[in-house]
Design goal:
Blueprint (H helix, E strand, L loop, with lengths): L3 E7 L4 E5 L1 H4 L46 E4 L15 H7 L4 E6 L5 E8 L5 E5 L6 E3 L3 E10 L5 E10 L9 E4 L15 E6 L5 E2 L1 E4 L6 E4 L8 E2 L4 E9 L6 E10 L11 H6 L12 E4 L7 E3 H7 L18 E3 L1 H9 L1 E3 L10 E3 L3 H7 L30 H15 L16 H18 L4 H19 L6 H27 L8 H18 L2 H16 L6 H5 L4 H15 L4 H14 L2 H14 L4 H12 L8 H18 L23 H16 L9 H18 L5 H23 L6 H17 L6 H17 L4 H14 L5 H19 L17 H22 L6 H6 L36 H4 L23 H8 L15 E2 L5 E2 L8 H10 L6 H14 L4 H12 L3 H9 L11 H16 L8 H12 L5 H9 L3 H11 L7 H9 L4
Parallel strand pairs: 1-3, 4-9, 11-17
Antiparallel strand pairs: 1-5, 2-3, 2-4, 5-7, 6-8, 8-9, 10-13, 12-15, 14-16, 16-17, 18-19, 18-20, 21-22, 23-24
Helix pairs in contact: 7-8, 8-9, 9-14, 10-11, 11-12, 14-15, 15-16, 15-17, 16-17, 17-18, 18-19, 19-20, 19-21, 20-21, 21-22, 22-23, 23-24, 24-25, 24-30, 25-30, 30-31, 31-32, 32-33, 33-34, 34-35, 35-37
Length: 1143
């Protein structure tokens, strides 16, 4: 058979024609002439599987064995990267003879190509089966398939095919797109996929895009600039637009890459306080991350994207206005994010001497290289304990059980959900299965080697991880899920019994946790007096069950031997008993003993660990925390603060480790200083309280900085939790306490212009309290009321602030007690003031309703007393103030007790659980002679009696300065042409009316007024479910059909769009009409269909039985047909109706 040698010439750069993948799959590559051992299915790599010999292509390549060896597309000069000379070994030449199909791609500027054909047999001939058959091929846009027929002398023929694809001049697409620096695109690049995301580390400040085009005549631009320019990234999301234009300039295509930086983990301090106010997230009180606003919110609400998702996870309502969120409610604030990224900030480690200022977007890269970053290697202590001999951990070969356990732990961590994701896994593939297998392997190893301390320790760590897997990620086995359902049912039954007991003892409604415990205690004493010991024992069981739910930390959990933490502590103690000289065993045992409340025992273990590892930051942190809870002082306050601060700084430094470091451990639940560990964050709260009370070294952090870091870390920890269990509740307590401390600090700064910031923080903290998963308790309600009072003092004519205060006061009126009645009266006054101020300016005299409330009177009196003392101090400067005398006394440590938030030395802490808070005069700070008022008087009339000049004005006039009263509204500082200060107007809202209606329903003589308010709410906000439900409940007792009319006014969406809240209303209509036997009522049929479509036919079973008993077959047929979206005459339905005897 004849063979063919072929080369192709074109008037453009040369291309190598490659065999098609189908033909390549039949070859085995062979280098340097030797036999290849590669399988037949391996593809050829023309750049590596063949040796290079020269720097230019040969003009012709001959073939042997009647076959083409290669095809060369040659035109002009070849770029150096394309100069790939190839020599084919003999054996490979024989193998490649089977290749008859080749492909090539040429640019749009190529018009023709020339084929140079040469056969190995001079008697053979070849024919070009394309176009006119000439060697010069005219190329068209797209695929040009050229076939060559080779005919030998004996008539044998062989066909060769060349598929040349010519790019269209109007085509506009990329052949490849990469991000310099090894950042990956998601999804992988494809020329027909135009939207990508690219996650990068938070210290990445800029990137460079590398777009590649198949045709060099195509033009590319990145953000309307050249591709060689770097792109400066925002602190959150940066949208990069890559535009490719076709060779003829007629068409273009846009590729979008959304580059997302990780959230900067620590709170930043902006150089300008105005930036600090504008860019502060209401949830974390740190800088906004991927800021989004709520569509048409007034005033405009901007939050970080992860936190607004967290707040709306359970209920799709605006957390500030409580309005339902419609479609497209989330609006990305790109311009705000860009301004924030360019705003100057201070270094995280400014307290350690760093004076650099940089753009917010650059702080991550700076902190990574900052020379002031704290080192993980701490300096030795000035006073060292006697060092002990280091223990041997039993260095033996790793047992197979331990190896298997470690593999299962790796698989467990691999399959844990990402932050904010929902746990979804197939049966038998839950991460908990791997964790359980690890515990089984360790337990088996302990059985084999019971005296190996390390095995006990590893088993303890695995058991502790079980706690976080259950409470943080919601992982449970199916049997445990069934048991959990049973437990929830039992819990619901117990709660109903507790509420019934509360009603018997004068606590109606839903009392706070404290009142529920009080009612149980009263019932227990009554039963003991009556000699009913069996019932008394059951009531005591209810009391203990409820007590475990009331804590802010895990102390009660650790004490429960059935809990994973309790079992982990037992294993840590087992390990310590076998090897008492191990710092690691002493640390773990001391940490959990401290969490259990056994601080004295914990301190012994921690001091032992500190003697063995005096420079370990974790040991120092927990040792300082344990010292803080001792009655006798064994360490100075300065050393305690140093220990705890070193632990916090260690965590801060770990956020900026190099990229090749192991995965950041501060997010790992197994880390002792993990930011999802509420015990660690509570210790940091103690540090902030100490820093507020005692002066310290120059490198000490400020209390505000610590509180900001805690609030930011706690918010991130909550957003990472999948399950709303005990871990989330503990982190929520930390977040609320840090928020409250920062609010008090802001108030005490007593600076002009702080009122809008105070109002903003008060509203944010109130929203967090309302949306938290913490069960209502006295401490939480006291905090809510105190925060709302602070907001009213800052803006006494703000309708929204007064409405929030009324809601907080209404929550306090849960019992028919003197305090409850006072709270109810105050709530009515606050709601009435909020309604009266609608449409008026937010400045001026406080409303009359405030002067009728006890707490406001106490505030005014406290401000007056403070001014008198201030004037006395100015006239007698040599006389020491009573505050100095009191502060000179020894007040002890400020470690927060369990269930109580940390408070600074000059802050107004919320009332404790067992105390009442009727006014500011009853606070401990007032008793010590410290600042009593909630806020310094800033606006006209704030903190003064009606008709008198404000104290601030009097002081300013005496000093000869002109007093210019500032507004207390959220929008201040705007002026008209005449220089008059313009302030915001109070908007009309349904919320104060709804709150007032709820308050009026508590008394029998105001029911009618409450009904009128409910109707007004329905007219103002027809989409609010609560107004219909509560009004209908009021009317149901006297006129059930009137309740149906109220429900019928609700604007239901089409059935396919109805929610479970909508189904509740339709279900109530069905329930009332069926109970009243109003089978012909026009609202029964449509509501039966709507309720059945949303909830299912099973929810209508009892109603169907009742209708069958009344022979309402026509109605039943119509209901079934409507739910199934079929006609009554449908054949299948007709058969079903016959079976049911309905026709």
């Amino acid at each position: 058979m004849a063979t063919l040698a072929l080369s192709i010439q074109q008037q453009i750069p040369r291309f190598l024609l490659l065999p098609s993948m189908a033909d390549c799959s039949r070859l085995r590559p062979q280098a340097n002439g030797g036999d290849s051992s590669a399988p037949l299915g391996q593809s050829l790599n023309w750049g590596t599987d063949f040796p290079q010999r020269s720097s230019v292509f040969p003009s012709n390549l001959s073939f042997t064995a009647a076959s083409v060896t290669m095809l060369l597309l040659e035109h002009g000069s070849l770029p150096p990267c394309m100069t790939v000379p190839i020599q084919l070994p003999a054996r490979l030449t024989r193998l490649i003879s089977d290749i008859t199909q080749y492909t090539a791609t040429v640019e749009s500027s190529v018009e023709t190509t020339t084929l140079h054909l040469q056969t190995s047999d001079c008697g053979a001939s070849c024919n070009i089966l394309f176009g006119d058959g000439s060697k010069t091929i005219k190329l068209e846009d797209g695929l040009n398939k050229v076939e060559i027929e080779v005919v030998s002398e004996d008539g044998t023929t062989k066909m060769y095919s060349i598929a040349v694809t010519k790019l269209s001049a109007s085509a506009a697409q990329l052949s490849d797109l990469t991000v310099q620096g090894g950042h990956s695109l998601q999804p992988d690049f494809s020329p027909t996929t135009y939207d990508y995301s690219c996650p990068v580390h938070f210290d990445c400040c800029e990137v460079r895009m590398n777009p590649q085009t198949p045709d060099k005549s195509m033009q590319t631009a990145v953000n309307d600039a050249t591709c060689s320019e770097s792109i400066m990234l925002n602190a959150g999301e940066t949208e990069v637009i890559i535009k490719v234009t076709s060779a003829d300039g007629a068409n273009s295509q846009v590729y979008t890459v959304n580059i997302t930086r990780e959230q900067i983990p620590l709170a930043v301090t902006f150089c300008d306080v105005r930036d600090q106010i504008e860019f502060e997230c209401p949830v974390s009180l740190s800088a906004l991350y991927k800021p989004v606003s709520i569509h048409q919110s007034e005033p405009k609400t901007v939050l970080s994207a992860p936190y607004i998702d967290m707040l709306t996870r359970r209920s799709k309502v605006d957390p500030f206005t409580e309005r339902p969120l419609g479609e497209g409610w989330k609006v990305r604030e790109s311009e705000l994010e860009q301004r924030m990224s360019n705003a100057p900030v201070k270094c995280f480690f400014s307290h350690r001497g760093c004076r650099r200022q940089m753009r917010y977007a650059e702080i991550g890269a700076h902190a990574k290289e900052c020379r002031h970053k704290p080192s993980s290697d701490l300096d030795p202590l000035i006073r060292n304990w006697e060092k002990r001999l280091q223990t041997a951990f039993g260095e033996r070969d790793v047992d197979n059980l331990i190896s298997h356990a470690e593999k299962h732990l790796k698989l467990y961590k691999k399959w844990l959900p990402n932050p904010g994701d929902v746990m979804c896994c197939d049966p038998g593939q839950s991460p908990l299965d791997h964790l359980e297998q690890a515990a089984v392997h360790y337990a088996t190893a302990v059985k084999i080697k019971p005296h190996n301390a390390k095995l006990h320790f590893l088993l303890g760590q695995t058991l502790e991880e079980h706690y976080f897997a259950t409470e943080m990620y919601g992982l449970r086995k199916k049997a445990e899920v069934d048991d959990q359902d049973l437990v929830q049912a039992k819990s619901a039954g117990r709660q109903e019994e507790i509420l019934a007991i509360c009603r018997l003892h004068g606590f109606p409604g839903t009392p706070t946790m404290e009142n529920q415990l009080k009612a149980l205690d009263m019932e227990l004493q009554d039963l003991k007096q009556q000699g009913q010991s069996a019932k008394a024992d059951y009531i005591q069981t209810l009391f203990l069950w409820l007590s475990k739910k009331a804590g802010k930390d895990s102390s009660s959990v650790v004490s429960d031997e059935k809990c994973w933490l309790s079992r982990a502590l037992l294993k840590y103690l087992d390990a310590w008993s076998l090897n008492a000289d191990s710092w690691e065993y002493n640390l773990q045992a001391g940490r959990l003993l401290l969490l259990q409340g056994r601080s004295k025992k914990a301190l012994q273990h921690l001091q032992t660990a500190l003697g063995l590892q005096p420079c370990h930051p974790t040991i120092r942190f927990y040792t300082g925390l344990a010292q803080l809870q001792q009655k006798e002082e064994t360490m100075s306050n300065e050393q305690v603060m140093l220990f705890i601060q070193q632990g916090l700084e260690y965590v801060m430094g770990q956020f900026f480790v190099p990229h090749d470091h192991k995965e950041q451990e501060q997010w790992d639940t197994g880390c002792h200083l993990s930011v999802v560990n509420a015990q660690f964050l509570r210790g940091c709260l103690s540090l902030a309280a100490l820093l507020s009370k005692y002066s310290s070294s120059d490198q000490a952090m400020s209390p505000e900085q610590v509180y900001h870091i805690i609030s930011g870390l706690a918010a991130q920890g909550i957003s990472r939790c999948v399950n709303a269990g005990e871990v989330v509740q503990q982190l929520e307590w930390v977040l609320l306490d840090a928020h409250f401390a920062l609010l008090q600090t802001l108030i005490q700064q007593d600076r002009e212009g702080n009122q809008p910031w105070i109002v903003k923080r008060c509203q944010a903290l109130t929203a967090l309290i309302l949306l938290s998963s913490i069960a209502p308790c006295r401490e939480l309600l006291d905090m809510q009321e105190k925060v709302c009072q602070m907001g009213v003092v800052a803006a006494p004519r703000c309708s929204r602030a007064l409405c929030l205060l009324g809601s907080a006061q209404l929550a306090q009126s849960d019992a028919a007690t003197e305090r409850g009645q006072a709270g109810l009266a105050n709530a009515c006054l606050s709601f009435q003031a909020s309604i009266e101020l609608e449409g008026s300016h937010q400045t001026g005299e406080p409303p009359e309703q405030l002067h009728k409330q006890t707490w406001w009177k106490d505030h005014v009196a406290a401000e007056r007393d403070k001014t008198v003392k201030h004037e006395a101090t100015e006239t007698k400067p040599t006389v020491e103030s009573s505050e100095a005398t009191v502060d000179g006394k020894k007040t002890g440590r400020v470690a927060p007790a369990r269930g109580a938030p940390p408070s600074t030395a000059k802050t107004l802490a919320p009332t404790q659980v067992n105390k009442t808070a009727t006014g500011a005069k009853q606070t401990p700070q007032a008793a010590r002679g410290r600042k009593v008022g909630l806020l310094s008087a800033k606006s006209n009339g704030v903190g003064k009696a009606p008709g008198k000049t404000s104290i601030k004005a009097q002081t300013s006039c005496k000093s000869g300065q002109e007093h210019k009263p500032s507004t207390s509204a959220v929008e201040v500082g705007k002026q008209d042409n005449e220089g008059t200060v313009l302030t915001a107007l109070n908007e009309k809202s349904y919320l104060p009316r709804l709150g007032l209606a709820r308050a009026l329903t508590r008394t029998a003589d105001s029911q009618k007024q409450a009904c009128n308010l409910y109707r007004e709410v329905i007219d103002m906000a027809p989409e609010v479910h609560d107004a219909y439900i509560e009004l209908a409940n009021l009317l149901f007792k006297d006129d059930p059909l009137a309740a149906v009319d109220i429900y019928s006014r609700f604007p239901l969406k089409p059935v396919c769009e109805q929610t479970f809240d909508d189904a509740f209303i339709t279900g109530e209509v069905v329930h009332i009409l069926m109970k009243q036997e109003q089978y012909e009522h026009p609202q029964l049929l449509p509501n039966l269909i709507a309720y059945g479509k949303v909830m299912g036919l099973c929810c209508l079973e009892k109603y169907i039985e009742a209708l069958e008993g009344k022979f309402m077959t026509n109605l039943l047929r119509t209901v079934y047909a409507g739910i199934l979206d079929k006609s009554v005459d449908d054949e299948e339905l007709q058969d079903f109706f016959k079976f049911k005897c309905w026709i």
